[in-house]
Amino acid sequence: MTDGTTDLADWSCPAPLRDHPVVVMGHGGGGALSAELTEHLFLPAYGGEVLAGLADSAAVSLGDARLAFSTDTYVVRPLAFPGGGIGDLAVNGTVNDLAMSGAVPAYLSCAFLLEEGTPLSTVGRVADQIGAAARAAGVQVVTGDTKVVDSGHGDGVYVNTSGIGLIPEGVDIRPGRARPGDVVILSGPLGQHGIAVLSVREGLSFGTGIVSDTAPLNGLVREMLLVTRDIHVLRDPTRGGLAASLNEVARASGTGVVLDERAVPVPEPVAGACAFLGLDPLYVANEGRLVAFVAREDADAVLEAMRGHVLGRDAVVIGACVAEHPSVVVARTALGASRIVDLPLGEQLPRIC
């Protein structure tokens, strides 16, 4: 592979099939174990064409309206970290999932799972975060629920948020729409959220403060759709990082993806922390970044629009879709070599969202 000319058409992973009789942490990590759990357990049990699309949010019709519907549960530890906390993470995460289908997020539900003995002041801080984040994103929390479990049977505060939004006419954004020739654009630097959470969890200092990138992306997507409604794919690289998002799109669309590793922006403190900890930034979670697949003829205009928004000012082209090596993501390294960027097995950093 060092000469950059390896034929990847027949590449397959030699690892044996995994057989876990019990749930392990990797099942919630957004990687291969999560995919297997969904494909072999949940999809057969639930069925349904909409669910089988496995997008960040489901696109459903209700009368004449097309709605996006999404849900997510947040179990981050610790509850607060540089740049945010579980409250704004819960709002931004669901808003972003809706935005990745091109929807205009409108309404959220919010459910709390609380452990007996948790200070009410802690719950109040999380609720205040949720309210502030919802106002900043332009959405309303309109319903919710609260449950309490026995002391020792939880971890303080878990939060579930679900959301709905309206998909504009003419917008069809989903993983299966990527096609050869598409340009891949990343909205900004990678790895800040995962490393920020890890730093406070483990009491690590990396010399320079690393702050989570958590933010609502619906405003950035709105600016992109003003350029063209024919954006093919949007993904926010959360669990499993950029590597997982690119693999999900490649597999759903049957296209190959070539990633220019030199073009991927990784802040120096994040790169240093990853080198120290033996982590790959491509697999570290983000909470305020998106990756877009757009037709080549629209790429320059979309990139310009992204750079005109505060959350996309560092947007950059990082790769392209190709007909070669279908469903496989390949990175071109700084040395001119090639390497497979596979779907992670589990998650490098658990409990980060």
Automatic annotation (TrEMBL):
<dbReference type="Pfam" id="PF02769">
    <property type="entry name" value="AIRS_C"/>
</dbReference>
<comment type="similarity">
    <text>Belongs to the HypE family.</text>
</comment>
<dbReference type="InterPro" id="IPR010918">
    <property type="entry name" value="PurM-like_C_dom"/>
</dbReference>
<feature type="domain" description="PurM-like C-terminal">
    <location>
        <begin position="179"/>
        <end position="327"/>
    </location>
</feature>
<dbReference type="Pfam" id="PF00586">
    <property type="entry name" value="AIRS"/>
</dbReference>
<dbReference type="InterPro" id="IPR016188">
    <property type="entry name" value="PurM-like_N"/>
</dbReference>
<protein>
    <submittedName>
        <fullName>Hydrogenase expression/formation protein HypE</fullName>
    </submittedName>
</protein>
<dbReference type="InterPro" id="IPR036676">
    <property type="entry name" value="PurM-like_C_sf"/>
</dbReference>
<feature type="domain" description="PurM-like N-terminal">
    <location>
        <begin position="56"/>
        <end position="167"/>
    </location>
</feature>
<dbReference type="InterPro" id="IPR036921">
    <property type="entry name" value="PurM-like_N_sf"/>
</dbReference>
<dbReference type="InterPro" id="IPR011854">
    <property type="entry name" value="HypE"/>
</dbReference>
